[in-house]
């Protein structure tokens, strides 16, 4: 028996909640948005719900729109999810009611589908055999339109009242349909090779925890060992939090199953590693390790190489906290210029359910960062940040530092210019809005108002990661997409928002009409 439960919203109702308001700190700046975090645990005798809660807490940086946990006790699966941060969605009473021996957890930032309760994960289906299937997905598929057609063709398909509009939901539907005849493991072995794009998955039925990673291994996924069980998670930092020891990465093209008989593994596709280099630059926690390389060490090394590529005479190196801090430390080490803390970050500014007033909005970046005037007054500053997307944050920051008394402001960026959108799980601005797409370095410098501007090169960034260039995806920097993209009408964040209802025979009725292309897809596909 399987069931879905949520204390906040009845699953029998089709209800769209108001999206969580974006940060008031910089309303006009859509920087690189993290994608999602996934966590799974199989551990009889442990409090798997609370363990998953802590695991998601460690992965909160990867997605702040929604969170959810599915728990199975061997007889039924219970899902609890809602919009908001992990700490907003779950409390002690809720967690204590989620009892079982295995769990799947997810924290979401949307890359396909709007911010609605229906689109929160884990997604859930009941198979024809009566078993439940819960799934969490980190990444983004590029053959979503093709999967939509496959779902529309399913015979005797019974839709619930919920209308999820995500690639993850389609994947769950197809997996549940196949599991009715083949079982989950064999259904996954048949479905996974047909998926195109980035996917790090954790999913489970009543007795077994599964994990799978796309053949390119775009997004990280790791396996950890508990004294009485196993853990899979997006980052090694989540293993540390729950006391699991790192065993290895889930390999590209690998499916893992964990149950009472132990752990088994099988390749569903030949590996073609293309890990996302932006995980090293920005996305992952600094205390995470990817492909054997410390993210923190990588960022410090990028800073050292940045100092070699773009030296400048200055009095103080300061980071834009927190993501710019390791690179700023490296820049100071590489340049010999003293490192200092010139900006104080308000740790409590983030997503909120309260819409900021226009007066508060006008405060802009000052809600997030405030200068230490006594530190920066009269100084020539090197300001190190992780990336520039639109340039609004850096423009406001340079102005604020000058007003606080800085003599010179030299901006150094610990990644190359972002010129292309990502289709594999990061939601950048559209290509037309990427400041580096329409201007060279001097043009960007003039736009943000700094005295000088320097980006680390792609070559030095890759070298700092200690990974071969051939094993990394640098598409957002060089436009070289390792996974082929379909035509522009089959791409976009809101591709599934206006899907026609299937007819009684299961086929979609009518022409789906023009499909909105999100985050610069058309621009990317017609690039010179």
TrEMBL record:
Cofactor descriptive note: Binds 1 Mg(2+) ion per subunit. Binds 1 [4Fe-4S] cluster per subunit.
EC assignment: 2.4.2.14
Keyword field: 4Fe-4S, Glutamine amidotransferase, Glycosyltransferase, Iron, Iron-sulfur, Magnesium, Metal-binding, Purine biosynthesis, Transferase
Binding site for Mg(2+): 323, 385-386
Enzyme class: transferase
CDD domains: GPATase_N (cd00715), PRTases_typeI (cd06223)
Cleaved signal peptide residues: none
Superkingdom: Bacteria
UniProt KW Transmembrane helix keyword: no
Protein's recorded name: Amidophosphoribosyltransferase
Protein source organism: Pseudonocardia alni
UniProt gene name: purF
